[in-house]
Design a protein that fits this description.
Length: about 170
């Protein structure tokens, strides 16, 4: 992460978890998805957003109105959604947070449940937990030998085809 990105991460976190929680988990999912599409295309169509989030356009519209009144998006007419500067900053943080958690789950060897668990874990995680996970990911990336040792160690105890055969008492 560059210095500028770090700034946005801390700032994004503060925006989300300031005096009172700014966005609900669902609103965070919307903003993250809007940011993903906006990054590629420069704007987002309401129908497209509803489709990506697997929701009805009427419920998408309700949540987008809320993001609009919070100044995160500019939603006027013709079903076109644009991000404000504030929305871009927060959206960028949400996407980074998602990617950090997803990379962590990948590092510990989660495959099928990775996306679902990322979505579960991302909302409401403290900044310091997120930062420490980021460092752990970086540590693995910078030390592939440690990654291999971890994988070998794990293989001794854990068979992902049969998670019920877990040798530890947790
Ligand atoms: Co996400």
């Amino acid at each position: 992460m560059k210095k500028k990105d770090e700034f946005y991460t801390v700032r994004g976190y503060k925006m989300l978890n300031g005096d009172k929680k700014l966005l609900t988990a669902s609103m965070e999912d919307y903003l993250e998805m809007i940011y993903r599409i906006h990054k590629e295309e420069g704007y987002v169509r309401m129908n497209q957003l509803a489709e990506k989030l697997n929701v009805r356009p009427s419920s998408a519209s309700k949540t987008v109105q809320k993001l609009n009144s919070l100044g995160m998006v500019d939603y006027q007419k013709y079903g076109i959604i644009k991000l404000t500067e504030e929305g871009k900053k927060l959206g960028s943080f949400l996407l980074k947070r998602h990617n950090i958690i997803e990379e962590f789950l990948k590092n510990i060897g989660i495959k099928e449940m990775r996306l679902k668990d990322t979505e579960m874990m991302e909302h409401g995680m403290s900044l310091s937990t997120l930062q420490n996970i980021y460092i752990l990911n970086k540590f693995f990336a910078d030390n592939p030998d440690v990654m291999t040792r971890f994988e070998d160690y794990k293989a001794k105890y854990y068979d992902e085809r049969d998670p019920s055969d877990f040798p530890f008492d947790i």
